[in-house]
Amino acid sequence: MCALKHIPAIVLAAGQSSRMRGADKLMQDVDGEPLIRRQCRIARQVCERVLVALPPAPHDRYTAISGLDVTPVPVADAAEGMGASLRTAFAALPKTARAALLLLGDLPDLTQDDLNTVIQAVDLNSETLIWRGTTSDGRDGHPIIFAKALFAQFAKLTGDLGGQSIVKSAGHRVARIALQGNRARNDLDTPEDWANWRALRD
Fold first, then answer.
1. Please, what is the end-to-end C-alpha distance for the chain in angstroms?
2. Tally of domains in the chain
3. Average pLDDT by consecutive 10-residue portion of the chain (202 residues)?
4. Domain containing 135 — which CATH number?
5. What pLDDT sits at residue 3?
6. 136: number of CA atoms within 13 Å, CB side?
7. Which residues form the signal peptide (predicted)?
8. Number of H helices and number of E strands within the chain?
9. Cα torsion 135, 181, 161, 47: sign
């Protein structure tokens, strides 16, 4: 099995929160801290290196993660979509990285234990190329760990489709790890999403 501390993490946090009608979903308060800070903190608790894809500075998200031992990675063309964030972040990975954990910035229910669960499933001596978290009923979600053999494909991504084509290219070489409930997929994109989520927690 792979020592989890040697897998760097990428936190995708360069999006525009376009459906939040002026608010920033990654700056929403979750248990007393901005969501982006929470995501970076739990990633850093399980990975010795964390890269954070961010919009060009100045931006409030830089302030939100100040003091954390993480590396901001400005995405000059962030407005293009997730493809630009993935291209930039994967290009910034250490050359020695044999795999990388990808974490969306807007999944407030994911826990440190969830990240550990997926990382602990990694075996770089197997034929598997991707390990990804799923919901308890098997729907694909995050985090996703990509083996180094797939890194070069990220340089070719465009638009806002993310890494779906890369996951598809791996075919049967994808291991799926069930996480509790809907935590692997529960992204909150609108003010109504956030209001409903908070109401369920009260």
1. 40
2. 1
3. 73 86 90 96 96 94 97 91 93 96 94 96 96 96 96 90 88 96 92 92 80
4. 3.90.550.10
5. 53
6. 5
7. none
8. 7, 9
9. negative
pLDDT at residue number 17: 74
Under 8 Å between Cβ of 45 and 112 = yes
- Find how far residue 43's CA is from the centre of its chain: 9
The reported pLDDT for the residue numbered 2 is 46
Expressed as residue numbers, the domain containing 64 is 4-201
Structure tokens at 127: 């034929």
Distances (CA, A) of 151 to 25, 76, 130: 28, 20, 11
d(CA 36, CA 17): 12
List the structure tokens of 64: 């939100």
> For residue 75, what pLDDT is reported?
94
Peptide bond into 72 cis (omega under 30): no
pTM for this predicted structure: 0.94
| CA separation for the pair 178, 134 (Å, rounded) | 5
Contact indicator for 46, 9 with CB cutoff of 8 Å: yes
